[in-house]
Specification:
The chain starts with a helix and ends with a helix. By secondary structure, it is mostly helical. α5 runs antiparallel to α6. The chain contains eight helices and no strands.
C-alpha cells in the first residue's frame, strides 16, 4: 500500500548532510566501543559468543579481502537498510513523534543482529541511521554511513586477523 518512492526515498544530498551524517555515525561508533566494553565486562561469556567468533573466522583471510568486504560491508548496507530503514520504517511514518520511531527502530536493529555483546552497539547505530532517514528522508545517506562503518570495522578486523591472529580481530568484529 505504501508507494515505493516513500518506502525507499533515494535523493541527492548536500555535502553538509553527508558530513553531519558522518559526525552522527562516528559518535555512534564511539559510544558503541564503550557499550561493547561494558557488556564484555558485565557478561564475559558474550565475548566468546558464536556470532562474533564466526564473523572473526570469516574475516581471517581465507575468503579474500574483496569477498569479505562485499559480504560484510556492501551487502548489509543495501539489504539491512532496505529492510530496516525502508520497509519497516515506512510503516511507522504515522507515528507523530520522530524520537519514538528512532527508538523503536534502534531496538529492532539491535534485536535483528541477535547478539548479546553487540545488542547495545547495533541498537545505537540503528537509532543513528534511523534518525538520518527520519530527518533527511534519504536512504542513500543511511546506506552510505552503514557501508562506511562496516567497511572500516571489517577492514581493520581483516588486517588484524591476517597480521596477528584472531584475538584483536574478534574485538573489531563486534563493531561490524
Amino acid at each position: 500500500r505504501i508507494p515505493l518512492k516513500e518506502m525507499f526515498p533515494v535523493k541527492k544530498f548536500k555535502v553538509r548532510d553527508f558530513f553531519g551524517s558522518l559526525f552522527l555515525a562516528g559518535g555512534g561508533v564511539l559510544i558503541g566501543f564503550v557499550s561493547i566494553a561494558i557488556v564484555g565486562i558485565l557478561i564475559p561469556s558474550s565475548l566468546g559468543a558464536g556470532d562474533v567468533q564466526a564473523i572473526s573466522e570469516f574475516n581471517s583471510g581465507s575468503s579474500g579481502y574483496l569477498l569479505t568486504i562485499f559480504a560484510m560491508a556492501v551487502t548489509p548496507a543495501i539489504c539491512e537498510e532496505a529492510i530496516q530503514r525502508g520497509a519497516i520504517i515506512a510503516n511507522f511514518r504515522t507515528i507523530k513523534k520522530d524520537w519514538i520511531i528512532v527508538l523503536i527502530m534502534g531496538l529492532f536493529f539491535g534485536i535483528f543482529h541477535m547478539s548479546v555483546l553487540r545488542f547495545v552497539n547495533t541498537a545505537i547505530m540503528g537509532a543513528c541511521l534511523s534518525y538520518i532517514v527520519v530527518k533527511k528522508n534519504n536512504m542513500v545517506l543511511s546506506s552510505l554511513m552503514h557501508f562506511l562503518i562496516n567497511f572500516v570495522a571489517t577492514s581493520l578486523s581483516y588486517v588484524a586477523s591476517v597480521n596477528s591472529g584472531n584475538s584483536a580481530a574478534a574485538a573489531l568484529t563486534a563493531l561490524a
